[in-house]
Amino acid sequence: MRVPDGMSDAEAKQKQDDLNTYAEGNGFHLAIVFYEYVPGAQSAFTELVEAVRRAGAKQVVVPSYRELALNRSLQDAMLTHLFYATGGAVVVSLEDGS
Predict the structure, then answer these.
(1) Which domain of life is it from (predicted)?
(2) Cα–Cα distances in Å, from 69 out to 15, 27, 48, 66, 92?
């Protein structure tokens, strides 16, 4: 999840709590939360892809697709990359419910 400079610790904790609540409510185990602190960086996404691949996970949960990128085309590219690099993992957005 992206953690911009202006985000308070309480806001970041709430985002993580929302992820935990979704996971528990849907019978999943939230293994790890990746944090991205640098605007425009993708190092956390790269780590995420590797972790999903190693674990054989099939679902990734994000607070919103904007956690991946602000641009919809880039979001789509990242979703496609994640899917093919991990053998089929999909992303669920809490904001969109999909």
Answers:
(1) Bacteria
(2) 17, 27, 14, 5, 15
Q: Are 48 and 60 in contact (CB under 8 A)?
A: yes
Going by pLDDT thresholds of 50, 70 and 90, the confidence category of residue 41 is confident
C-alpha neighbours within 13 Å on the C-beta side of residue 84: 5
pLDDT in tens, 54-71: 999 999 999 999 999 989
Q: From CA 7, how far away is CA 52, in angstroms rounded?
A: 27
SS3 96: coil
Three-state DSSP state, 97: coil
